[in-house]
């Protein structure tokens, strides 16, 4: 009897070690066709003007974006990437909780935004998602599940644009990404499991930076490459530490570069400048003013920094393929 008990104890010991060493993990991502809820964070490339707290209609399967009416208030003169992703390239009916805010940086204390009332990524997570959308305080019509929800981030454009001339990319970008992934970990602690991170696009090719000369073009390009490389590293580390998570980095640089390098293929007649009469938006997505020479949606850039809706559509189309 003693021998049997001893053997059984030994088996338990081996099982314990085996479990600790080879503990299986079960990724919660079951494919794009099974995602019915999107939580979105970012800046003007992503914002739709959604207001979570003013009593306006909230997102639902029958009203994807809630408020304001689709496509919302975007910087694209039409739908932006998240608008296209959830309406043109979705596989099922989705609700989109878009907390992105124009001008956002990761943390306003690290990189000051253009206005004091801009909601940083830190604000979007800590002051909007956590108190209003995390369980159990989420609205009654939002019964999101980890395996059917996707958390998407497109942030960093303003962080780099407002800091690249300072140099010291290695140390400063580490500070930015430390804070970025503190916030990602906060979301993970609240039940988020599926994450998509869009890299910062090559905005050194925007009219804003082209107009500042070679030094700015070169150094913002170097800063963007540094930030994006570190983003990939941080995602890998996050994945290692959180084996129940599913992560994907979507690189936007090839999408932008291909359209900028082959404009005719994508229907663009101008990829280096913009028309002043279009820059604040137009009555229609394809408005034509004679003084601008071509319709607004044949410009890659609506203004000095923001691409038009066809650029966003291509980003969404390629992202959907990955998902």
Automatic annotation (TrEMBL):
Protein name as annotated: Carbohydrate esterase family 16 protein
Highest rank taxon of the organism: Eukaryota
Keyword ATP-binding: no
Pfam families assigned: Lipase_GDSL
GO MF annotation list: hydrolase activity, acting on ester bonds
Signal sequence bounds: 1-20
Coiled-coil region(s): none
Keywords: Signal
rRNA-binding is among the record's keywords: no
